[in-house]
């Protein structure tokens, strides 16, 4: 295993669309949402132990989740848990990790990935990461993974690749024409028809040197801020300086801040069975289902005249469902949600309403 | 208050159609099902304290519910709680109470009533009971109350009265032509059209002497059995003899065993706002509703695009309901039921299924 290979797992999200399973105090990445015994972050960590040495895997998360990470990933040291004092989106998160890693290994080759996605064909995934890591070791590239889309999903960003500009050593690595945020359905349909758009999976590979250069050029103010921490990283003084940096650091995504602007971006078109598990509907799609197309977690759920539902119930609870079609039925920690699957975008509103009416305790 | 007036409250039912609120260990009559702070049996008891001396009110129930009765009706003595060792329907229950009361007061005038009905216009009810009690004091009648029907409900038994044979002193007390068990809808519609059918409310008035005579004539084997207990009633030996009697006593209702056969039956046609609260639907009908016609018990239930539902939730539970029309949504003690209101007759089946699959604990 290449000792220069590093992984940064981003685990700071709150997963509000998975409420009430995902909760402020236990977001989605810390839940065994597939019901198979491992939380999403545990699965993600295990996956990257195939790529990097375990001590080279860093987790960036909110300071609130330090204990959760320690509990769920007991094999990593405190040093490997990078705690953000507040949420500032992905660019500051990556900048922070870069400076920490730089003090350990300035020749690092880094893969950055979210903690809460699922990957079905891990062998394909490993192969792509390995090819990608080697490519960014040799080339000054910011390499992102683009998923071959199966439908005009409006929940993802899209990357348009340039078919004519293909990496000679691997016919699936292309130059990028455009990044697009979540499109309208009509636009998404056009993207799919055109054949040269990919879903933006939010998985990046680059050498530390390349990403440093990009920060320097495209987000110099963010870079300058984190540079102030040099000499403090990986020391007892780190926390204090980081608190100061985050107080003034702007909130900006790596896509918007760098990827959409840089000229050396490449995309690796891939197809390894991927889902960002962004919504109950996306979880429903990948779950195994019974003969009535119900995806059920819960040992004592009985359904009658009920179809196409996703059900997550505490394992000891007796649940009788009659006459429901295409619903989300979820209970967790004192909260029950029953909602039509097609209206799952309303869940954010419910979370807000509950917060306003009953307080933070339930969100 | 007439010291000869007695009341027998029948409280042995299990209320299976109200599952999962009504449970084997806490049936419907012991629940505050209207959400107003009093259980149904408490309301029933309080009502009859307007008719009889409190010490003349007896509660007949299963031995399993002795503690519940003592808890909920602390004002009554142990002597007033008549415990049946097993369920044998209403005729044995009444025979047992008769023999107990006989040893205290052979001149008793008795009203027998279920513990789990609701009555909205209590002033009208009191007036009717008072007239009825006076009538059965003077006449050798078995008087039952018939409710003027508002719709062709198939959940009730019907009583056809004889308009030509009316009690001269009260134009609402009639002779009875027929008793009918729960009819088909088409039949129920004909009943309503005919104008001479009433709902059988299961509330009876008679003198102890009249009902004794009726048992002697129409259910002599039941009467003979309970006669064996004479000398033991209201003594420490009662329990032993009663256990023996119930072991061999047949299961039969007072309607089938006596009322449908006796010639001295009279019916008091009444209209005091009555419901037997037999089903969730009947509870829905009488509950107050919000602007979307939802009848909700639960302090933290939020509804969106949800109409015509009956919802009973633990008071601290956060519940979000979206896109439900005409459903029953009930949670109680580890069981959640979601079921279309129009399919509530299936609840009995669910209870059976749960018992088979998960054991008695949940029924």
Characterization of this structure:
2 copies of one chain form a homodimer. Chain A is of the alpha/beta class and 363 residues long. Helices cover 31% and strands 26% of the residues of chain A. Chain A is built from 11 helices and 17 strands. Chain A has a 5-stranded mixed β-barrel with strand order 6-9-7-8-10. In chain A, strands 12-14-16-17 form a 4-stranded mixed β-sheet, with helices on one face. In chain A, a hairpin with a 6-residue loop joins β7 and β8 (173-180). In chain A, α3 packs across α6 (208-218), α3 (90-104) crosses α7 and α6 (208-218) crosses α7 (220-227). Chain A is globular and about 60 Å long. The mean pLDDT of chain A is 95. The interface between A and B is medium-sized, with 33 and 33 residues.
List the keywords.
homodimer; alpha/beta; five-stranded mixed barrel; four-stranded mixed beta sheet; 11 helices; about 30% helix
Helix percent band of chain A: 25-40%
Oligomer: homodimer
Measured between the Cα atoms of the first and last residue of chain A, the distance is: 42 Å
Q: Give average pLDDT of chain A, whole number.
A: 95
Task: Give a short synopsis of this structure.
The first copy, chain A, is of the alpha/beta class and 363 residues long. Chain A is 31% helix and 26% strand. The mean pLDDT of chain A is 95.
Task: Please specify the SSE layout and strand pairing.
Two copies of one chain form a homodimer.
Chain A: E1 5-10, H1 40-48, E2 57-62, H2 66-72, E3 81-84, H3 90-104, E4 109-114, E5 118-119, H4 122-138, E6 142-147, E7 158-166, E8 173-180, H5 185-194, E9 197-207, H6 208-218, H7 220-227, H8 238-248, H9 254-259, E10 265-270, E11 274-275, H10 280-286, E12 295-297, E13 301-304, E14 310-312, E15 318-322, E16 327-332, E17 335-340, H11 347-358
Parallel strand pairs in A: 1-2, 1-4, 2-3, 6-10, 12-14, 13-15, 14-16
Antiparallel strand pairs in A: 4-9, 5-11, 6-9, 7-8, 7-9, 8-10, 16-17
Helix pairs in contact in A: 3-6, 3-7, 6-7
